[in-house]
Design a protein that fits this description.
Layout: H1 11-16, H2 18-21, E1 27-38, E2 43-48, E3 56-60, H3 67-71, E4 78-87, E5 95-106, H4 121-126, H5 135-157, E6 161-162, E7 168-169, E8 181-182, E9 202-204, H6 209-219, E10 221-229, E11 242-251, H7 255-276, H8 278-285, H9 293-302, E12 306-309, H10 310-322, H11 340-350, E13 355-361, E14 377-385, E15 389-396, H12 401-410, H13 419-426, E16 432-438, H14 439-447
Parallel strand pairs: 3-5, 6-10, 12-13
Antiparallel strand pairs: 1-2, 1-4, 2-3, 4-5, 7-9, 8-9, 10-11, 11-16, 13-14, 14-15, 15-16
Helix pairs in contact: 5-7, 5-8, 5-14, 7-9
Bound molecules: adenosine-5'-triphosphate (ATP) and manganese (II) ion.
Adenosine-5'-triphosphate (ATP) is lined by residues 174, 230, 232, 239-240, 243, 245, 390-393, 436-438, 440-441.
Length: 467
């Protein structure tokens, strides 16, 4: 290993700056062998280091030391290669390496699980410890990074502060969320929570919103970005029990401002990926039925989001149902909670693009949402997108102390638990609003992946906490 002293370069850099690299000697790359092909006069090793979608071809002449071993490598080997960069003759790539020296630093001794033929997404979930080596999962994980990075850029540039809210909490934000208990009590103990670690029942958080509200009414504009836990048994392709949520909370903000923030944010995320992760998008376009992925994203980046009220949305759905244009498993009526099939009809068939639905019946929404003058609906909004359904849920918050207390009582929540949350309305209250974007839903939308378990490295869902 000592002989190779040049500093390793990322294959991404070599490919993107090929003009600069052509002609350079002693360039060092490391990575995993994707394939190896032998011809009469030399071997071609295709190597990928994870930095980008594309791989680098290395031409190995039999004169290279340990050529015997090199030419016997198979997919999955890990190597360190030094060589001269030359313009490529082959199609599809502009630059390749002529090897000066190759060291094998990791061999494959057993049958390599990631054989070309056995790489269905279902199978890859069973080898999640290795699947970052595949084209599909690595591109998705790079885009996951891109969306996280772009989130900090978007909010940072707009003067938002990134805040951290607790993961262990004693309050149930939604009033209905299924929560994971956090306890140090021995198993089987008839639960006396006064003897528990915190002296009362505690849980993993389902949302950082309530605490984010406290911080927004001091710092003005904040956002959280953290893990969120919901013990939902819903075994769907859109739910995890551990997922990441981005929750901006803004003071002096109403629902219209919030809707604008949400669409600006989504468009920024899409733009960032379009501008910086083209190879990933191009690859993903070839997967599944993603052919129009890039043009779809380009259209969404530029278009204004549609907006309808819940009441209008229900009319659209009823009309589709009555005219037999569309069958729904769940009947639609004013007051019903919109199911994924309804959401997807609205965004995929009716509006054919992202749509923001506002002003839901208060009965189906959380206690903290601001009541409209009609006394029936609240200033809530959901952003729906094709292929996924709900991607963002948000609202203007109730800032009237009396009304909030009434709502807490109506919903039979414990007023005492919310004393600090109510204080925000007693001391210098202000109109404010916020939303939650599920990071994994956003990744699904941008990548066209159809199962949420494939957009997080190690998915957690009911019955599964492997790895
Ligand atoms: P859904 O109706 O899809 O179950 P929700 O209305 O319960 O979602 P919210 O409480 O509004 O979700 O949470 C805000 C956002 O968090 C959602 O818009 C969605 O993007 C994401 N989200 C919610 N639950 C999950 C989950 N179990 N797994 C992954 N993302 C989720
Ligand atoms: Mn929601």
């Amino acid at each position: 290993m000592k002989e190779i002293e040049s500093k390793r370069v990322l294959i991404k850099k070599v490919l993107e700056e090929s003009d600069k690299f052509v002609g350079q000697e002693g360039v060092l790359v490391c990575g995993w062998v994707r394939s190896l092909r032998k011809s009469k006069h030399c071997s071609f090793v295709v190597v990928n280091d994870g930095s980008t979608q594309n791989a680098l071809q290395i031409v190995v002449d039999p004169a290279v030391a340990n050529y015997e071993d090199i030419s016997k490598m198979i997919t999955g080997f890990c190597i360190r290669a030094r060589g001269k960069m030359v313009a490529s003759q082959g199609k599809g790539q502009t630059i390749e390496m002529v090897a000066e020296k190759i060291e094998i630093i990791g061999t494959v001794n057993d049958e390599y699980p990631l054989q070309k033929k056995a790489t269905s997404l279902e199978f890859l979930r069973e080898v999640a410890h290795l699947r970052a080596r595949t084209n599909t999962i690595s591109s998705v994980l790079r885009i996951r990074h891109a969306l996280s990075f772009a989130t900090h850029k978007f909010f940072g540039d707009r003067g938002f502060f990134y805040v951290h809210t607790p993961i262990v909490t004693a309050s149930d934000c939604e009033g209905a969320g299924a929560m994971f208990r956090v306890t140090t009590l021995p198993p089987g103990d008839a639960a006396d929570f006064s003897k528990d670690f915190y002296g009362k029942p505690t849980f993993l958080t389902v949302s950082g919103q309530l605490e984010a509200e406290c911080l927004a009414l001091g710092l003005g504009q904040v956002y959280t970005f953290g893990p969120t836990f919901r013990a939902e048994n819903s075994n769907t392709p859109r739910h995890l029990s551990e997922f990441w949520m981005i929750e901006p909370e803004v003071a002096f903000c109403d629902l219209d401002d919030l809707a604008e923030l949400a669409s600006d944010y989504l468009q920024f995320l899409i733009g960032h990926v379009l501008d910086h992760y083209r190879p990933e998008l191009e690859f993903l376009s070839t997967q599944n039925q993603n052919g129009d992925l890039i043009s779809r994203l380009q259209a969404v980046r530029a278009a204004k989001f549609h907006r309808v009220s819940y009441t209008e949305a229900v009319q659209i759905l009823e009309e589709a149902m009555n005219s037999k244009k569309q069958k729904f498993e769940f009947k639609v009526y004013w007051g019903c909670d919109l199911q994924t099939e309804h959401e997807r009809y609205l965004t995929e068939k009716h509006f054919m693009g992202p749509v923001i639905v506002t002003d839901y019946p208060k009965e189906i929404k959380a206690f903290y949402m601001k009541e409209n003058p009609d006394g029936k609906t609240v200033r809530a909004m959901d952003v729906l997108v094709p292929g996924v359904g709900e991607i963002i849920g948000g609202s203007q918050r109730e800032d009237d102390h009396q009304k909030l207390v009434k709502r807490i009582q109506e919903m039979q929540l414990h007023e005492k638990d919310y004393w600090w949350y109510l204080d925000l309305r007693k001391f210098g209250g202000a109109p404010h609003a916020g939303f939650g974007l599920g990071l994994e839903r956003a990744i699904m939308y941008v990548t066209g992946m159809t199962n949420i378990r494939d957009v997080i490295a190690f998915p957690r869902f009911s019955g599964s906490a492997e790895f």
